[in-house]
Design goal:
Length: about 375
């Protein structure tokens, strides 16, 4: 048995979802919408299941999907991609694994901004890498030059960037992205850029991929996910975007992780991307409204809610809400006694994790939000 797995906890998302099911609680923990997907894409998947191929897809993905992904990023982010720069994966989770396996050698240091999505550190460590945490400080959660510089060393190989950022809901600004780009270009680092939330932008904001910065296209491995774009998290169709050279290396890792993903779902995602972006605006507007509804409800019962500009998560500062127990204890108590599952931020950093912060998912129908907010009122 590899020692890494002997003391590893089960992912906080799985733990909280199991606890929600066990206690019949409303699940505002694991991030998944309970509305908002375009129904046409479900019909496209059903058609592809019945009339299309049910045998192995090409390892790098269906040509139609790779073309649709390249077209989508040309339209939305001005990226000029050939299909040889796109590799379809089983969710962004696999894209991350392939990117890390293709990049990190034993002894390499990899920078993570914490709190960080929980998949990065274990993957880096299993590849033999050493995690260097750069803590982002609440309530601003900004990338600061001094903190980044302090974490860089001659052994730094890569930076994992997650923008927009889960769990904080931050959309990093140009100044912060420039700091990352400058460090990467001046030191010859690879940037693994987890951009799965690139379309979940609130309040009419714009997204700039890090690969658009000077010198970054050839050193960035971008990870994307149809699960987030179409609010269909269970589909697990993701992708890696990179230079042709890096994409080939990552595709070699991918071929021995899953080899390929379900052809029918790939066909449906290709259909969805090629259909245009009619779903985008309504999705953003409904998530912005949902955020406002949840924020107002939580504030009415005395919770200190931090601003959220992207993703469908918001954070609550328990200490600032006058709650003395830590986030883990609060989350256990809330799901067991008050009937609401939330996610504590403590598992998202190893050094000095935020111990008084919880995350809630607001991508829910009004009824779900109202039940959740009522339960939160009882949880304090
Ligand atoms: N990265 C981040 C930051 C995420 O939030 C998620 C899912 N919530 C993933 C990766 C995984 O995406 P997928 O479900 O496509 O594997
Ligand atoms: N990414 C989702 C979240 O942040 C959960 C993904 C998972 O359960 N592994 O809640």
């Amino acid at each position: 048995m590899h020692p890494l797995y002997q003391h590893m906890a089960t992912s906080v998302f799985e733990r909280m979802s199991l606890a929600a099911a066990q206690h019949g609680a409303v699940n505002l923990g694991q991030g998944f919408p309970d509305f908002g997907w375009p129904v046409e894409i479900l019909d496209a998947a059903a058609r592809a299941l019945k009339d299309g191929s049910n045998q192995y897809a090409p390892s790098r993905g269906l040509p139609a999907l790779r073309e649709a992904i390249a077209g989508h990023y040309a339209q939305h982010q001005g990226l000029k991609l050939g299909v040889d720069q796109v590799c379809v994966t089983s969710g962004a989770t696999e894209a991350l694994a392939a990117a890390i396996l293709a990049t990190v050698e034993p002894g390499d240091e990899v920078i993570l901004f914490t709190p960080a999505y929980d998949a990065y550190a274990p993957l880096i460590r299993r590849a033999g890498g050493i995690v260097r945490e750069v803590p982002l400080q609440p309530p601003g959660w900004r990338i600061e030059r001094a903190a980044l510089q302090a974490a860089l060393s001659p052994r730094t190989k890569a930076i994992v960037l997650n923008n927009p950022h889960n769990p904080t809901g931050r959309l990093f600004d140009r100044e912060e992205l420039s700091l990352v780009a400058e460090a990467a270009v001046s030191r010859g680092l690879t940037v693994i850029s987890d951009e799965v939330w690139e379309h979940v932008l609130l309040d009419g904001q714009d997204f700039t991929p890090i690969s658009a910065f000077a010198g970054m296209a050839e050193r960035t491995l971008k990870c994307g996910s149809a699960g987030k774009i179409f609010s269909l998290t269970g589909w697990k169709i993701g992708w890696l975007i990179s230079s042709p050279e890096l994409a080939t290396l990552a595709a070699r890792a991918h071929q021995f992780l899953t080899f390929a993903s379900a052809p029918n779902l790939q066909a449906a995602v290709a259909y969805g991307l090629a259909e245009g972006d009619g779903w985008l605006r309504p999705m953003r507007e409904s998530f912005s409204r949902a955020r406002d509804r949840m924020t107002a409800g939580l504030e009415a019962s005395g919770y200190a809610v931090l601003p959220s500009a992207s993703t469908y998560f918001l954070c609550v500062d328990l200490a600032a809400s006058g709650i003395a127990i830590d986030a883990e204890a609060f989350a256990d108590q809330a799901v067991e006694r008050a009937g609401v599952a939330v996610v504590p931020l403590s598992p998202f950093a190893e050094h000095d994790p935020p111990r008084h912060m919880i995350r809630l998912c607001f991508a829910k129908r009004d009824e779900t939000i109202d039940v959740g907010v009522e339960a939160m009122a009882k949880a304090r």
